[in-house]
Amino acid sequence: MKLIILALLATAASAATLYDAPRPQVRALDSGENVAILRDDRLIDDEGKYNFDFETANGISVSESGSPVGEDGAINSAGSFSYTAPDGTPVHVEFVADERGFQPQSDLLPVAPEFPHPIPDFVLEQIAFAAEEDAARARGELRGASQPSSRYGAP
């Protein structure tokens, strides 16, 4: 059984080299491209407070500061980062990370619709119809298929 599995794996490996499927262009982190660091400032004190700022020649910029809060070792931090996306879009994100989690802010992030959002008329009509049906059921006026069966202990 092991011999069969080994043979199948060897066949699959050799067959993979026969097909030259187009591979997506991926920019590797280790591309060999050297990028100059224009600024790199770091400060960490004995109490756990920190601050760092750096900027590279290809437009990447990061700034962050933080400090410990409470006895459990948690750290609140705030900062920003910016870079140019592969499609040329400038990206700038400001953030806070605290007891409520990571909270980024950017014009490029999706935004949920405002609440309360408009409710379509057909939904309001259905809600009103259900309320009338519940009132009729409470008065004992509702019969037929809409009436819950007492056999199953309906409310």
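Next protein, fold it too.
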Amino acid sequence: MEDKTKKLNLKREVGLMGAVSLIGGTMIGSGIFMTPQTVLYTIGSPGASLVVWAACGLLVILVSFCYAELGTVIRESGGEYIYILRTSGPVVAFMLIFSSVFFVRPAGLAGMALGFAQYVVAPFYSDCPPPVLLVKCVAAAAIIVLAIVNCLNVRFSMSVQVFFMVAKVLALAVIIVGGVVMLIRGHTENFENSFENTNLGINPIGIAFYQGLWSYDGWNNLNYVTEELKRPEVNLPRAVVIAISLVTGLYLLVNVSYLTVMTPKELMSSTAVAVTWGNKVLGSWGWIMSVAAALSAFGSLNGTFFSGGRVCFVAAREGHMPDILAMAHVHRLTPSPALIFTTIVSLVVLIPGDFQSIVNFFSFTAWFFYAITLSGLIYLKIKKPELPRPYKVPIILPILVLIAAIFLVLAPIIDDPQIEYLYVSLFIFSGAIIYVPFIHYKLCPGLLTKLTVFLQLFLEVAPAEKNL
């Protein structure tokens, strides 16, 4: 046998269209059909809710520009994890991956799956809320189906993403056109005194942003798959600008349409806002909106799966997760062990999952690590200006976004402290305690080696190299 063994690479198969679809198709998911009523209820007035949606879009565009620079300086897959590892060190990076693998990513998948399931069963329960067990079973089935799709083929997964991206944009276009028609007919009464009863407390603003930003989640997905992106120095910033600008415009117009068709009270009391909209505008054809919302959530779930498995994969490659998770299928070239692991944890999180709680705790944890990532960009700009930067932003931009991220992390705690945020914080910092025995001193290596060999043979996987 030769000493040198040929290793695998994940192929660069994601072009500009796939990149735009991955970002936009993941962002436009269950959020725009599930969170408008919570944003309105929390902030208190239609006018302020539209301001929140616009501000969320602006914040996401600014932070994604910062990520575009990071993605062209550190041209590795893994998103926040790899950026924090290269700028803040292994302990903080492990805290991120521990939180991400065991909570943030699975919670995101569970939340999207619940949104998908809610709309799938909504037409069958028009007069009452659907049974919780049924909703969770449908959500679990969606997670398992997409796990299989993503394990089988990268190109097929991208085709699924592009198809659902087109379907969901068409669905939003129907809502927008319906709203425009109603506006032309003079239905503007819901916009009179539109800022009346606005809640200007720190906590309501923070929670409204959490709910709004949930709908924009997925803006950073391309940074997780940089090694599979064709010409990342060109396509990464280009895809970000196209996708996020498109989504922000669509979201604002959709919310205007919701508020044109429904009174604020009707909107806040709806469990499936697109179905309520469809019943009022399309009449007996209202069920079409339920199908459209379900397709939208399914496409978003697929995009999150595609990128989520890569985070686990990159962390394992850096020695922060078991070696088996850094392997790819020898024929299909997909990181199937990481995808299977993500699926299992997502199904566990789904069992006790409640949509609104998932959104709030997901956003709190995510923006905590976004703040650390942005600090790393500021550090690179000051300490390592000589690094090649095909794309760069002025230093004031990451500073402004960092201030916004700190506000989003602290806002719900300062104004209305809840014990759950303490639990989430303890969970994040517990990663540092686990790092010392299991990563630094590598306890139980023998048991892990035997398990790795067994799973490697069973799953037909082999180690994969970086694709730089």
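About the second fold: The radius of gyration is 22 Å.
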